[in-house]
Amino acid sequence: QKEVEQDPGPLSVPEGAIVSLNCTYSNSAFQYFMWYRQYSRKGPELLMYTYSSGNKEDGRFTAQVDKSSKYISLFIRDSQPSDSATYLCAIWGNFNKFYFGSGTKLNVKP
Amino acid sequence: EPEVTQTPSHQVTQMGQEVILRCVPISNHLYFYWYRQILGQKVEFLVSFYNNEISEKSEIFDDQFSVERPDGSNFTLKIRSTKLEDSAMYFCASSAQGTYGYTFGSGTRLTVV
Predict the structure, then answer these.
(1) What is the per-residue pLDDT across B23-48, written as a single tens digit (0 to 9) for each?
(2) Beta-carbon-side half-sphere exposure of residue B65 (alpha carbons within 13 Å)
(3) Which of A13, A58, B22, B43 is the most exposed place for a label (fewest CB within 10 A)?
(4) Distance from A12 to chain B by nearest Cα, in Å?
């Protein structure tokens, strides 16, 4: 079983839509959960991170963690064309490294 | 804002040749990493480096790979004899405390022909 599973998409939505991006993970010992945004030919850029179960908001972005289900989500409200990118979930497990999801490619159409 | 700088942005090399990918981490960071991303696939951990030695490496990081911090600013990844399957984006990252607060560079696209 892979450490992190993520639906690769692509996901295409109209501007203003609410976007939901999701990942599941296998190891209940995983502690820190991150969402990265990656534009084409660029390195991953940290969007949000959270430690505990529950929601964390930052502007139009909400990260949600459900440790009992080993399920993490990123919601984007009022999506904009500039949000078009690949979104990677990443989990900091142990031994000083990340486990990345495969990334979901999002396209927000004007 | 401080950033991790990688050079070159794109390198083309012949199979069997040695390549060195270069990174300048953020100046006060102590932990350094290399990740790679084969086109269309996920970002994969290669190696972490702290206190002038490898702290962990993945199964991908075999004897063909090595890392070095030759001076106070650079962090390099060397591939001794490149294979076609080494073609990928290679990302360097650094962090201050070895936690999740990584900063990634923009990557070097390596194409092995």
Answers:
(1) 999 998 989 999 999 988 888 999 99
(2) 20
(3) A58
(4) 18
